[in-house]
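To close the section, here is one more complete example, presented without commentary so you can practise reading it yourself. The ligand is phosphoenolpyruvate.
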Amino acid sequence: MQKLIVANWKMYGSKTMAEAFLKTFLYSKTDTYNYIFCPPFTLLASFEKFLNSQKYILGAQNCSSFENGAFTGDISAEMLKEFNCSYCLIGHSERRQIYHEDDEKILTTKIQQLLKHQITPIFCVGESLEDKKQGTAFQKIKHQLNVLKEINNEIIIAYEPIWAIGTNKVPNIQEINEMHQFIKNLYLKPLKVLYGGSVNPQNAADILTSDQVDGILVGRASLEVASLLALKER
Ligand code: PEP
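Output:
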């Protein structure tokens, strides 16, 4: 099974940068991985223009829990579908922490909206440093995964320890494997679990080579073609 590399561009990039990036990327890419790009909403059109191959799939970073209506600033799942988004991040820790988007009901309706429009949610979970220190990381992840209890469709989970995002601190491979195994054991059906948090060209080989890891979710290292393409197995 081909592993996924999900590029989360967060609030970075411009039309000029995206076009230059994609030209180089499409010229230099290999077919080893399935890449999913999650650019800011304003760059979806630029990406859509270039990503006409199945291998390089488009995603978004968030979506509204509503179908449509007077919700200033929101983007609906239906709107994302119009740009051919096949994936969407939900529950990223930056949304949970900075914008307090942590409500189980809202996260559930966002997922339902995406599934209604044939978009696969990439549901992000992760423990804080406090949870880790207190030994409650597994409990925390199990609690966050409650959102998925009524959902039977295909979903991808991204395990992203909050203390690892943008910090250059990464759990060791045993810790990653243990958490991925724990998450997979909570479900009857096989499901993909990605690791995210400070993945870079130096540590990617160890992480991607693990059988427990179905792919990676990458922020900073996905903004340059050379570092994105340097993320690979041994
Ligand atoms: C992320 O944004 O999901 C992420 C993992 O960021 P970074 O790779 O920069 O830690």
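Once you have examined the tokens, check your reading against these statements. Residues 63 and 81 are 11 Å apart (CA to CA). The radius of gyration is 17 Å.
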